Amino acid sequence: MEMIKQLLAQSRRTMLLAIVASALSAVAGVMIIGGVNHALENGLGSLTYGVLAYLAMVSILFMSGVWSQSLLVGLGHRMVYQLRLQLVQRILNTSLARQEQLGGPALYNVLTRDVTMVANATKQLPVSLYNGLLLLAGISYLAWLSPILFLCTVLLVALGVWGDFKLVGRIKKMMADVRYYDERLFEQYEAVIEGRNELGLSQPRRRHLFDRRLEPAAKGAMDTAIKADLLWAINLNWTTVLVFALIGLVFFLGMTLESITQDVVVGYVLTTMFLRTPIAMILEAIPAVLRGTVALKAIDKLKLADQEQTSNERDEPIQALHFESLSLNKACYEYPTQGDESGFMLGPIDFQLKRGELVFLIGGNGSGKSTLAKLLTGLYLPTSGSVKVNDDLVTHDSVAEYRSCFSTIFPNFFLFDDVLSGANESTLGDEDVKVNSREDYFNERVRHYLERLAIDHKVSIKNGQLSTTSLSQGQRKRLALLLMYMEDRQVLLLDEWAADQDPVFREVFYREILPELKAAGKTIIAISHDDRYFDAADRVYRLDQGGITDFDLHSDSLFHTSIKDSALAESTR
Ligand SMILES: Nc1ncnc2c1ncn2[C@@H]1O[C@H](COP(=O)(O)OP(=O)(O)OP(=O)(O)O)[C@@H](O)[C@H]1O
Question: Which residues form a coiled coil (predicted)?
Fold first, then answer.
């Protein structure tokens, strides 16, 4: 709602103009009816004058109508455009922790379904405003024609509005239910797309997903939407009945009450018939507006943008600080509770890292390595304790500068095919280069790394874009490493990077690439299960149930298995 209010506030002038234009058109419409009524009652007088006045009114009605609609249509579409941009901006401003809590389907639902619903609601804005003003002008004319009949009209309309209000509450609840079912549907869509391998192989799983998950959600949405639309259809017919009841009331009152003349009755009936269209159009717009309101409420409920960008981040490029050291001081990170279960708690952790060091984090599955990696890189802020960089506290305001020291490859990394967009200035060339242009220099460097990573036979680069990202997982990880080279940041975090590499390239990674990066002045944190390469690190830390301890290569063993066992496992791999 806040977003819509802000957008409307920005367009105050256009709104005002649109209201003036709509009012002009509405007044012209009512004057046509009034004029016809007057002519019926008093005769036409001059035919030429009558025709000219009629044509003038029709022209005003047409031109001001088109003017108001064009203003409002533009406003509606601009609001949708801004809503889309704002929503993505808000998601970008949402902390990783909150995004993980919400999950992908909820965010997709907002970006696709909810935005469409709000767009449909805003499209009703021009129609409703125009018809609302037309209705207002018509009602004022009715009040002027006969106060007694107007009182009766008000009573009848009050009855209709009361019925509408009762229905609207129920329908809004149903629409919230439809949205709930739609969100469940999005979860199943995600399973259909992401689980394509498993579903392709297993008929029982396909059936279960289709019959037990997807179909009930789709049916729930359909049944509830049908009920809501049916109720509204009944309401539309009920309104038509009310209009005719009004005409009947006016007609019979006119016949019986002497104070009401025949021309008043004719004027009343004519105007009421004329107002049927705006009433119907306003009523037809209401369901779309209700759906839009439900969608906006759902967007608000997600509590996006919990980490507003600092003004510095919005306006200027972030200046990375010069990394010398980082430390965690009794730092803890606790995941939010899920249902009755309390979330996993990492820490309290004391940890130091200096520029140029190569450190390994090891530990069993679920011990907290990736959680610590996110804490170290500033993707999570500690729930207690502190993170310091170069002895300065990392706070909400300074975390953007801190983050810009890091390049990461997490197991669920996303491979951007645009190498240029993330590349550091230093990798784009300088005066000393032998090649002619910066572009050549850049391409040369990419080619060099593609060769180094042994994927030059699969991938090439054109206009800063990778030729393909449809590769094996191990090859994709090598490309992610290429992007990391081109990003050229000071601290590199690699979360089980070597897990998908063949034994030959794993050896290259631990024995050549990591030492080369270290020699080039990079600080490296690598999460690893490869115990035969632990000696490549300056220090090794072991995580166990959220706690951290130093790992002594000679006296400790990983996962409480003997070195002999792991060597055996390695040789059979
Ligand atoms: N987004 C999340 N929300 C809630 N709990 C989470 C989330 N991510 C991880 N956890 C929990 O935190 C614990 C540690 O997870 P983490 O991913 O840090 O382990 P890990 O040591 O990296 O494991 P692995 O070696 O299997 O990758 C797990 O018990 C997990 O259930």
Answer: none
